[in-house]
């Protein structure tokens, strides 16, 4: 088994976040969805990195949907321009944890 990076590949997923009490990043909205792209070896590592990023931004992860390797997504449904741009930026940076536009929602759906 080679270097620790040997089993790493780019992953993406749709991450739902909400603000921690001290954060005003999302303003008055209840929460937001964003795509995250990062290097990971499996879904649990993807989640850990998404949570680390969210925490850094004063947010917390509510849920993650459709997390999978970028190559699998590319083969199944394509990436679209915004996600493709994140992937392009992450490819050359093994430390990248990139996120796209925050698609906010105002109210809890409950």
Structure, explained:
There is one protein chain. Strands 1, 2, 3, 4 and 5 form a five-stranded antiparallel beta sheet that branches. The chain starts with 8 loop residues before the first strand and ends in a 5-residue tail after the last strand. The longest helix has 14 residues, at 43-56. It contains three helices and five strands; from the N terminus they run ββαβααββ. The chain is α+β, with helices and mostly antiparallel strands and 110 residues long.
What general form does the structure show?
globular
Radius of gyration: 14 Å
Helix content: 25-40%
Our estimate of the beta-strand percent is 25-35%
Outline the biggest β-sheet: 5 strands, antiparallel
Query: Which spans of ≥5 residues are poorly predicted at pLDDT below 50?
Result: none
Helix-strand blueprint:
Layout: E1 9-19, E2 31-40, H1 43-56, E3 59-69, H2 70-77, H3 80-91, E4 97-99, E5 103-105
Antiparallel strand pairs: 1-2, 1-3, 2-4, 2-5
Give a concise summary.
It contains three helices and five strands. By secondary structure, the chain is of the alpha+beta class.
